[in-house]
Amino acid sequence: MRSKGLFSRGSSPLAAPGTYSAQAYCSEGDSTEAIGNKIEFELESIISPTLPIPDCNDVIKQVQQMGVVANEAQLLHQQLSNQVDEVNPVIDRIRAHPRGTTKSFRQAQRLRQQPESFDRMLDGDKLPD
After folding, report:
1. pLDDT score for 50
2. Number of folded domains in the chain?
3. Is 103 inside any structural domain?
4. Which residue(s) pair with 19 in the sheet?
């Protein structure tokens, strides 16, 4: 079951508490062979069962909101990366053009630095440029 806002891109869905097992296999052609022994493990809830229901609901709501924020940050990161990718060829063309001026080259570099700076801020890096 996938619920909006619980997962960021590339992550797996949350698993319900309980007993699980895992077994590694090697497949070659039509044959499949078990590797090692099957293991069993317990997953416990990250939400304490002793919390009152309203508190549990608040924790679930906060986890969902954190997932939404993570998804939005990933989307912004991708958009900023795409903007930088679009500016790089322009910078190369200005640098290579016989009438490209230093002023236009610096302006194009500033266009690249702004999304790069925002991207670093999304990653938690607050160092000045």
Report:
1. 67
2. 1
3. yes
4. 42
Distance CA 58, CA 74 (A): 24
* Number of helices followed by number of strands (H, E) in the chain: 2, 2
For residues 55 and 48, give the distance between their C-alpha atoms in angstroms, rounded to a whole number. 10
Residue 35, H or E segment: strand 31-43
What are the backbone dihedrals phi and psi of residue 94, each rounded to the nearest 5 degrees, phi first?
-65, -45
Alpha carbons 77 and 50: distance in angstroms, whole number: 38
Closest by CA position to 6, among listed 61, 52, 50, 47: 61
Euclidean distance between CA atoms 122 and 85, whole angstroms: 18
Residues 77-94 have pLDDT tens digits of 888 888 888 888 888 888
- The residue range of the domain holding 102 is 50-122
Mark the ranges of the chain whose per-residue pLDDT is less than 50.
1-12
* Cβ atoms 20, 31 nearer than 8 A: no
CA distance 57 to 77: 30
User: 3-class SS at 89?
Assistant: helix
Write down the pLDDT at residue 4.
41
